[in-house]
Task: structure prediction
Amino acid sequence: MTQHIQSPDAIVIGAGIVGACSALSLTNAGLRVMIIDRGTVASGTTGAGEGNILVSDKDPGPELTLALRSRDLWFEMQEDVGDTFELEAKGGVVVARNEDGPLLKLAAEQSEHGVRIQKLDHASLHELEPYLHPEFHSGVFYPQDAQCQPMLAAAQVIRTVIARGGEFISQAKVTRIIVENGSVAGVETSQGIFRAPIIVNATGTWAGELAEMAGSHLPIAPRKGFILVTEPTKKYVFHKVYDSDYVSNVASSDADLQTSTVVEGTRSGTILIGASRERIGFDGSMNYEILRRLAAQATSLFPVLRDVQLLRAYRGFRPYAPDHLPVIGEDSKIRGLWHSAGHEGAGIGLAPGSAALITDAILGRESFMDGSPFSPHRFATVSL
Result:
């Protein structure tokens, strides 16, 4: 019979990157942590992610503050757990298909809040990206944008938690949140009952379902997206490159299909192509029209990709909150139930910062920013 941690201080539900970082942060703060997942490491949204660690796509506000700190924490975490997940400060290039005024205005506003930018004219733009279509005349370079391999990152972080006295239980579906006198007391799973006074809900798209198990409410919904992967090829794309429509699509509340051009290379030589967004529930079917649209948009940005073969396509579900801000903090009804979810497409980039925020709140210590904009309490009367 497997021996589990006796009386863990905290249970983190979800073994994606948000849950992994939460567990590591709590572990490094001195807590004994148990991680539970109904699948395996990164078997949900994290496994379908590109690994973006971006500041370029954030408007000035609390999410940008979180993104800037989280970006730095990624590199601190690399020092802590080891360089095994392809973390790379490659920088991002944003181009405007039409008028560049809105892009330059956003960049100027971001620069007033700690984002480093470099305006690009035609010559400097094509020096950074020589295979970019010559019709693009200007853009903005964001040197702080980075990328990692998210599945490798989640796995390495969880290995570190285990090495420091934590535990990971896979294939354990949570069936009930145990609540006693208004406070969490543990979880009932397909592998037994585990008790702890602190539960962190890091289940991404399924965070609302878990909140309901505890008798609470969290309006998180899935937002489906596709990514194309090419065969390994010559280095045609040197940074993360996307058109400025991507920023407005990220911030949109429209449930209908939206696509924007995002292209980036990887260390293995493949090229990742996105991005689509669509709120159609947990419909996992493949949509070839969306794939064709993404491919066409990518080749309009980099014509050379017309001669590169696609290797595969995959899809995932981003955890969407109505106001596009992540949900980080203690539940509005149940004491000891903490949420870190609703990051949508930014979960990988925001994971270490979210973990720091929630750890500081649990321990009652001052954090690097005011976390109240992310509080679950803002949804006490909101429904989708």
Observations:
- The longest strand covers residues 310-320.
- The chain has nine helices and 19 strands.
